[in-house]
Design a protein that fits this description.
Helix content of chain A: 25-40%
Oligomer: heterodimer
Helix content of chain B: over 70%
Strand content of chain A: 25-35%
Order of helices and strands of chain A: EHHEEHEEHHHEHEHEEH
Shape of chain B: globular
Strand order of the largest sheet of chain A: 5-6-7-3-8-9
Radius of gyration of chain B: 19 Å
Largest interface: A-B, 34 and 33 residues
Number of helices of chain A: 9
Order of helices and strands of chain B: HHHHHHHHHHH
Number of domains of chain B: 1
Largest sheet of chain A: 6 strands, mixed
Largest sheet of chain B: none
Strand content of chain B: under 5%
Bound molecules: adenosine-5'-diphosphate, magnesium ion
Structural class of chain A: alpha/beta
């Protein structure tokens, strides 16, 4: 029996319907304070398990709840109901440039980003060079990253995430950035991580990518799981 | 969370704030002096030259309050938006989010400490002899740090839910500035009204700075009152923050 590293049991998740009422609404309609507001339901009764070392894909239309599942795994969102168990160090690779500061150079940003993602300063000092090498940004290491192109920022972000020894890597629709050469090296690195038994969750609208790299996948539809199983089966169901 | 992890986070984020402040302006350090100095000049002109208010060593008096106020006000403004301005980060990775406002408060604390030599030099220039009592300033710094952090945590945790708080903070800070004896001496407040001022969290620290710099006096009751404020605000701050921080990612 393989070790389970992520387990969702009957998870529901909803969001507040209107984002911020502001103080005006609260003052004009004090009643709204006491009554619970209607919430938008994003996920309903989600249960699944992911095994250690697996590469797992999540597919579904825009707004199906893919990112919400990753947010729940990362622990930034709390479920309304149900239980979520996650074993191991989660490293998210979701939004480009999150956790970077445009005025700082790449060496400073590597430290900042790495520490925010859970690594120690000592570790980051030791692997800075390796990260720069992999991202191919050595000659730009002293430039503020506001001068970088989107592709360069993506390379830096990816390089940091894969070098701080993630046990569970969350990848949300960002593998498509960077040039062909860098994409090839990303996939190589991901292969290497898999051999080191890293669990990888891949959210992508590129069904080819999921079919090619993932062992299993999950199809989200109508706020719940429509199908879970072999990646190529799931992609076939999604395409039809 | 382990102590070394907390240290790494706080150290890295504070260093970032300090670096960014220095790097994004040509004058860097001078700005943290120039603003309070220009305010002191303004108030000196309006109150001493025009209104002929009689306060001894008025410039030293003004600056010993203004530098500390500047720290307080800047920290509160920065902390209020600290969660929103790090939205993409907060939505992506879980870490103890209170280190965000904390790094803002420590950044301004650093600049306050860096401005102290100027304050001391001005005091000596105005024939105040430097005294061993000035060391008590470190206690005042600590107390102000706790109080400022407490209030910052309240503002930081509420702002993502009630975004108007940002504006309210600015208005509140303007009112609080005049409600704190910074440009007028504490003694000028009518006796009957004084008790109201004790509810002002910044009053005891500012007044303690005045007495310390101008008279080399350490007033224990002011330190005691400040301690009460810092414990109160820090508890309220952490209580509210821990309640609201779970829902940050939902509303950002
Ligand atoms: N913070 C939020 N507040 C309100 N609604 C949200 C929030 N995050 C996501 N949603 C809603 O939840 C649904 C699922 O979103 P998401 O998980 O981002 O979808 P996707 O599958 O495209 O990644 C969408 O309808 C979206 O509008
Ligand atoms: Mg998404």
């Amino acid at each position: 029996m393989r070790e389970i590293v992520i387990k969702f049991s009957n998870v529901d998740k909803s969001f507040p319907s209107y984002k911020h009422p502001g103080i005006k609404t609260m003052l004009l309609r004090p009643k709204t304070l006491g009554t619970p507001r209607k919430r938008f339901i994003a996920l309903k009764d989600i249960s699944f398990e992911i095994y250690k070392g697996e590469m797992f894909g999540i597919v579904g239309k825009n707004g199906a709840g893919k990112s919400t599942i990753l947010g729940l795994i990362a622990g930034v969102l709390v479920p309304d109901r149900g239980k979520i168990e996650v074993k191991g160090k989660v490293v998210p690779l979701l939004e480009l440039g999150a956790g970077f500061h445009p005025e700082l150079n790449s060496i400073e940003n590597i430290m900042l980003n790495g520490v925010l993602l859970g690594a120690s300063r000592k570790m980051m000092k030791a692997i800075t060079q390796e990260i720069l090498d992999f991202a191919g940004l050595n000659e730009f290491s002293n430039q503020p990253i506001r001068t970088f192109s989107t592709g360069m920022v993506a390379r830096l972000g990816f390089s940091i995430a894969v070098h701080i020894q993630p046990e569970i890597l969350l990848v949300d629709e960002i593998l498509a950035v960077g040039d062909a050469e860098f994409q090839r090296r990303c996939l190589e690195k991901i292969d290497q991580l898999r051999k080191a038994n890293t669990t990888i969750l891949l959210v992508s609208h590129d069904t080819n990518q999921i079919e090619k790299f993932c062992d299993r996948a999950l199809l989200l539809e109508d706020k719940s799981i429509k199908l879970i199983g072999n990646a190529s089966e799931v992609i076939k169901a999604y395409a039809s | 969370m382990s102590l070394s992890r907390s240290f790494d986070l706080v150290f890295t984020l504070t260093l970032k704030e300090i670096k960014v402040k220095y790097r994004s302006s040509a004058l860097g350090y001078l700005w943290s002096l120039l603003y309070p100095l220009s305010l002191a000049l303004l108030f000196f002109f309006a109150l001493r030259v025009v209104l002929k208010v009689q306060v001894e060593d008025f410039v030293v008096f003004l600056l010993s309050g203004l530098f500390a106020w500047q720290w307080f006000a800047n920290s509160l403004s920065a902390s209020t938006v600290s969660i929103i301005s790090n939205a993409s980060l907060v939505k992506m990775v879980k870490f103890p989010y209170f280190v965000l406002p904390l790094s803002n408060v420590l950044n301004d604390c650093f600049h306050f400490i860096a401005s102290l030599p100027v304050l001391f030099a001005l005091a000596i220039f105005h024939s105040k002899s430097p005294s061993i009592q000035w060391m008590a300033g470190s206690i005042l710094i600590f107390l102000q740090l706790m109080t400022t952090l407490g209030i910052s945590l309240v503002l930081a945790s509420l702002n993502p839910f009630f975004r108007d708080l940002e504006r309210l903070t600015q208005i509140g800070l303007n009112i609080a500035f005049y409600a704190t004896p910074i440009i007028y001496p504490f003694e000028m407040i009518p006796e009957k009204l004084k008790f109201i001022f004790y509810f002002n969290p910044m009053l005891p620290v500012i007044e303690a700075w005045h007495r310390l710099i101008l008279k080399s006096e350490i007033e224990l009751w002011l330190i005691g009152l400040s301690l009460i404020h810092s414990i109160f605000w820090l508890s309220v701050g952490f209580l509210i923050f821990s309640r609201f921080s779970k829902r940050f990612a939902e509303v950002l």
